[in-house]
Amino acid sequence: MKWTLIISAITLSGLLSITLCSEAQEYIPAQPRGGERLAREFIDEEMIYPPLALKNSVQGDVVFDFIIQEQGLVKNLVIKEPIDPLLKKEAIRLFNLIIWEPAEYRGKAVESKKSYSFRFNIRNYKKACRNRGYDTFPFPTENVDSSGTIYQYKYVDVQPFPFFEEAETDLQKFMAENFTYPEEALKRNITGIVKLNFIVEPHGRISNIRTIEHVGAGCTEEAIRLVKLLKWKAGIYNGKSVRVTVNMPITFGLNSDGGSYKVAPAAGQTTFQ
Predict the structure, then answer these.
(1) 87-105 pLDDT tens trace
(2) Rounded to an integer, what distance in angstroms lies between the CA atom of residue 209 and that of residue 9?
(3) Number of H helices, E strands in the chain
(4) Are the C-beta atoms of residues 272 and 161 closer than 8 Å to each other?
(5) What is the tens place of the pLDDT at every residue in 164-187?
(6) Whole-prediction pTM
(7) Do 215 and 208 form a contact (C-beta atoms < 8 A)?
(8) Which residues is 210 bridged to in the sheet?
């Protein structure tokens, strides 16, 4: 049995927070959107160690205490002292990029206290730079919107889109070369649509990945892995590269007749070709 993967086009997205939980789990703590693991991976990809702090071997943790309201908004933010002002500035920048999922009690969003830290360790930072392949960001334009505003895909002047370094590569070829149907899903003949939402940052990296619709047996994890492999051209609004929210539905399908891999936009939706 061979597999078929269909990936729908990017669609306009709102920012409604969705958290799935079992009825037996009465309280779910507040967390970064997409979970702690993805948030820490994003921080490793995003952090730019202040050059002067790097030169002077300044290290340490920057700790934020705050309250997350029912809507996911932050209030009463306190940064613990003493800390180096250079590290503090970068920690604030990183903190402002995180979207928060509020705590839930018996399925209802509730206000809660939260503490979150950013560790500045030179050895770990240099390792992260080797893994990600850069120590600074190549921005698509000289003008970058630093307000943190998140724009909807439909309303920016230039929509973000995935690009490929090799001219002969397109989305279909990229997916064919990188996609692996999860073994457990194959064994159990599991198919379905994984719907992801994420932010394309001004430098083209993605952040705040959220699963809107989940498929089991490793399909959701494989969809997230694929999306993280893609490189993006950032969205542009009023001549500045901006943060843009994007939806990407990925359909996992199995053809018993041999089939073939293909990528196709959903009918009536905007493609990123």
Answers:
(1) 999 999 999 999 999 999 9
(2) 17
(3) 7, 16
(4) yes
(5) 877 777 777 787 788 888 888 888
(6) 0.78
(7) no
(8) 197
